[in-house]
Amino acid sequence: MAEPAKTLLKASFNPKIKSYLLWYGVLMCVVMIFTIPFIPIWLIFASYFVNKYFDRLHCELTTRSLKFNKGYIFRTEKTIPLDKIQDLTFKEGPLLKAFGLSILQIETAGSSASASADLSLIGIVNASEFRDQVLNQRDVVTENTSSSPSSIVQDSENVIEILKDIRDSLNRIEQSRNN
Description:
Strand order of the largest sheet: 1-2-3-4
CATH topology of the largest domain: PH-domain like
Number of helices: 5
Strand content: 15-25%
Shape: elongated
Distance between the termini: 56 Å
Radius of gyration: 26 Å
Mean pLDDT: 85
Structural class: alpha+beta
């Protein structure tokens, strides 16, 4: 039986995410011109929900996976096995740069065909260090799950034995036809 996964690292999130989300909402209201009158309402009510959202942000790296929780009204819990992670990408836009934040996008097998990543983490403190830890642990996991040289040799010996048995059977069939 496999031992339970141990937590290696917990990500902490920059509190500037709260301001970023508020201003992002204002920017979206400005872009959609007809929603400009709703900006004061957004600023009053959104701060409560943004604070709750920030309080529920949680990301941890375990020995086998990356676990992420977010959301206040609509909760999201996601677990990504480390051996499925293909790429970790940083993204920054003008608004993110203004707040000193970045987005760490995690892509898994098959997600590159779609337009979005499997998981986007906004505002992780020391995001490049966190990315390096995830990649290092992924390498450890994939090295442990790959076949060892001794098992490859043993498998090839089994295949050779099976092929010899097939050859002998075919020789017997051929001899019986000739008789």
